[in-house]
Amino acid sequence: MANETTAAPTPAPVKPRMKFGLVGCLGVIVLLAVILGLTAIGTYNSLNKLDQAVKSQWAQVENVYQRRADLVPNLVETVKGAAAFEKDTFTAVTEARAKAGQAKLDPSTLNDPAAFAKFQQAQDGLSSALSRLMVVVEKYPELKATENFKTLQSQLEGTENRITVERQRFNEAAQAFNTKRMSFPTVLIAGFFGSRFAEKPYFKAVEGAETAPKVKF
Fold first, then answer.
1. Mind listing the pLDDT tens digit for each residue in 3-58?
2. Whole-angstrom Cα distance, residue 80 to residue 196?
């Protein structure tokens, strides 16, 4: 009896409509992946640009604070010449300046609210000490009349004004970053990078700054 070979079943041909459907689904997936990738890249670049703006403005804040610190020694020495017995005030200013100098804040740690608050506290402490020094000066009209003191006072006042301006500009840069960061879907992408794009802190007004100081002699 002759051997009969069983022919393998012929696979059913893929219908053209099904083939085009699979290609279409794959195309949609690829398109969505491209869109998501471009969105993520654009968001990252935008956040990075705003982050660099915050750091750049922070450098300006540090510059004006350093300028003030550089003025303090000459100012103290000038006032000492006319008010040698006001030792407590001079000591307070010197110590406050030292603390302000030690409170360094690297741009890479600007996202740390505790470190930022410590920096502001130290700088505000020096501001307070300098205010007390200026109250002492009011007792010595002859000191206020000297050219050296008037020059230093003018430089200090100008620096304090610059500090106010640069702090405000920093807050504006931080607000621009935070607003962008908290928007959707940026907040999801920012969260993926962790502390790299953490929320920025703000400078806060010194407590009691809204009330004019009362000076009594």
1. 555 555 555 554 556 666 676 677 778 777 777 777 788 888 999 999 999 999 99
2. 48
Closest-CA residue to 87 (of 99, 98, 79): 79
C-alpha pair distances (Å), 202 with each of 175, 179, 199: 8, 13, 10
Two tokens, residue 188: 């999801």
Q: Around 32, how many Cα atoms within 13 Å sit in the side-chain half-sphere?
A: 6
List helix spans (H) across 81-202: 87-102, 113-137, 141-144, 147-182, 186-192
Q: Which range, 6-20, 59-73, 142-156, is most confident?
A: 59-73
Q: Is the dihedral of CA 74, 76, 82, 85 positive or negative?
A: negative
Which uninterrupted H or E stretch holds 72? helix 16-80
Q: What pTM did the predictor assign?
A: 0.79
